[in-house]
Amino acid sequence: MPESTSNGALLTLAGVHTHIGQYHILQGVDLAVPRGGLTVLLGRNGAGKTTTLRTIMGLWRASAGTIHFDGRDITQLATPDIARAGIAYVPESMAIFSDLTVHENLLLAARAGPLDMARVDWICGFFPALKKFWHYPAGNLSGGQKQMVAIARAIVEPRQLILIDEPTKGLAPAIVNSLATALRELKTSATTILLVEQNFAFVRALGDDVNVMDDGRVRHTGSMASLAQDEALQQRLLGLALAAHQ
């Protein structure tokens, strides 16, 4: 049996199946995300990681199984209701409003009304470019800067849980380092993070718990520290050693 570190779960998926058209993508996902800290979802391309995040958010509907968040069944809730319950989602596509300024993008993400400028200043401490381009259309920014806007939108208000899909993809090392700093800070707050990522050195440094997916199911659950120290397990689960990707 895989090692379990799921005590005090904030989010649980039990036997979740997801069909997209004729394709059966998730085939009985069991996943527990502990309250607090950062849980990593690993797996080869096509394993079902992004589908898992989108199913949690209600963007794709689970065809079987249940999803509970903070003790509440959210399986059949609409996406806006899931967001209002306290879950934010940063998709790989970033999903920012290109025609709006950085300021307007963050303002739209603030559910409670005016921006908390103290929190904005805290976010800009990690991503100084946001203030520099505050009044620029977000569509004019570089890929890395757009990713900053996407993450800032997700954390502009406190959220219990943030789902983040491949945030370092295509980013320069300096921006990746800033992102790591921001996520470490979030881990010390009341925010729980579920992160899909292929940058193994990045997740090894940040992750507390790890789940490895294959063929639409979670095949391994345990601590990131244990996986990082076991090259044979890395090879069996992922077909590579994390150490080779530092």
Structure description:
There is one protein chain. With about 250 residues, the chain is of the alpha/beta class. The chain folds into two domains: about 10-85 and about 160-245, P-loop containing nucleotide triphosphate hydrolases (Rossmann fold, 3-Layer(aba) Sandwich); about 95-160, no CATH class. The radius of gyration is 18 Å and the shape is globular. The two termini are about 30 Å apart. It has a six-stranded mixed beta sheet, sandwiched between helices. Strands 2-1-4-5 form a four-stranded antiparallel beta sheet. The protein has helices spanning about 50-55, 80-85, 100-110, 115-125, 130, 145-155, 175-185, 200-205, 225-230, 230-240; strands spanning about 10-20, 25-35, 35-45, 60-70, 70-75, 85-90, 160-165, 190-195, 210-215, 215-225.
**How many whole angstroms does the radius of gyration measure?**
18 Å
Task: Let me know the number of strands.
Answer: 10
Per CATH, which architecture of the largest domain?
3-Layer(aba) Sandwich
For the termini, the CA-CA separation is 29 Å
What order do the helices and strands come in, and which of them pair?
Layout: E1 9-20, E2 23-34, E3 37-43, H1 49-56, E4 62-69, E5 72-73, H2 79-84, E6 87-90, H3 102-109, H4 117-126, H5 129-132, H6 143-155, E7 161-165, H7 173-187, E8 192-196, H8 200-206, E9 209-214, E10 217-223, H9 224-228, H10 231-238
